[in-house]
Amino acid sequence: MLEPLRQGLPPLDPAAVSGAASCALPARYEAVRDARQFTRRTLDQWELDDRFDDVCLVVSELVTNALRHALPANTPRVPEQNQPVRLHLLRWTERLVCAVRDPSHDSPVTRATDDFSAESGRGLFLVDSFADSWGWHPLAGTLGGKVVWALFLLEQQSAE
User: What's the sign of the alpha-carbon dihedral 66, 70, 72, 73?
Assistant: First the structure.
């Protein structure tokens, strides 16, 4: 059984963004490794190392899903010829958003499965388990495609 989910990102004041970073990813599975390395560098810069494991797992799943399910079958899987997937990391004082943009208009779907030995099909369950919330929304205008996002609540840093 397939279950689509669509929800917009909770309201976040764009003027209050304290950090933003993004990278284009080529249509090859090695891009998942590149996305993890980019996430590590960015979280280190933002002094959010303690959130790396959860955020990295979610980034890996979102990028893998974009590469596996959101690209047309004829998309070249070679470096530097096509970078149709983009990872965005946005930080607010108390929130971190990971967003993956891809060219597909199809909604992400969670699969109901009782087969826990399956090697795939649990990515969005992992995203749901590790992120505080997640969803997707279509992109309008010339960009087209969609963004799948995951939100993490951050501990408020105390002033010492």
Answer: positive
One-letter identity of residue 48: L
Q: Is residue 118 exposed (0-12), middle (13-18) or buried (19+ Cβ within 10 Å)?
A: exposed
Q: Is the pTM of this model over 0.70?
A: yes
List the pLDDT tens digit at each of the 160 positions of the chain.
334 444 566 666 666 778 999 999 988 888 999 999 999 999 999 999 999 999 999 999 999 999 887 766 665 555 445 568 999 999 988 899 999 998 888 888 776 655 554 455 567 888 999 999 999 988 877 667 889 999 999 986 544 4
Token pair 């893998």 is found at: 64
Cα 27 from Cα 2, distance rounded (Å): 25
CB-CB contact of 48 with 95 (8 Å): no
Q: What are the chain's domains?
A: 19-153 (3.30.565.10)
> What are the CA-CA distances from residue 6 to residues 135, 145, 152 (Å)?
6, 14, 18
Rounded-to-integer distance, Cα 126 and Cα 138, Å: 22
